[in-house]
UniProtKB/TrEMBL annotation:
Pfam families cross-referenced by the UniProt entry: A_amylase_inhib (PF01356)
Protein name (Swiss-Prot/TrEMBL): Alpha-amylase inhibitor
Disulfide-bonded cysteines: 45-61, 79-106
Span of the signal peptide: 1-35
Superkingdom of the source species: Bacteria
Its job: Inhibits mammalian alpha-amylases specifically but has no action on plant and microbial alpha-amylases.
Molecular-function GO terms, alphabetical: alpha-amylase inhibitor activity
Keywords: Alpha-amylase inhibitor, Disulfide bond, Signal
SMART domains: A_amylase_inhib
């Protein structure tokens, strides 16, 4: 066993140790999306229409909803309270093709007006 240890070069051993440490840190760190995902999908009567410049959200429900938009790159979007029959406008996907992946409900206490 001692002969096996002496056959591993120092750079290889250091790289392996660094890789193991990085893996351990990655496994123990909570991803940011998990911490912020204490929300649910809004009812089907809430629809979005996305273009390169704007994403319009329509509340076709009979109740007020608070929603936010999720993007492919994790871009932050405000939480907006939308009255029944009303619309709210969010950022679109822009020239970098940052597409909308869906809507999520959010806490009305942290929401800004539509």
């Amino acid at each position: 066993m001692a002969n096996l240890m002496t056959r591993i070069s120092r750079p290889v051993a250091l790289a392996g140790g660094a890789a193991a440490a990085g893996l351990l840190m990655a496994l123990t760190a909570a991803p940011p999306a998990v911490a912020a995902t204490a929300t649910t999908t809004p009812p089907e009567c809430v629809q979005y229409y996305s273009s390169w410049r704007y994403t319009d959200v329509h509340n076709g429900c009979d109740v007020t909803v608070a929603v936010t938009v999720e993007y492919t790159d994790g871009q932050a979007a405000p939480c907006r309270v939308i009255e029944p029959g009303a619309w709210a406008t969010f950022a679109g996907y822009g020239t970098q093709a940052n597409y909308v992946t869906g809507l999520r409900t959010c806490e009305p206490a942290t929401a800004s007006g539509a």
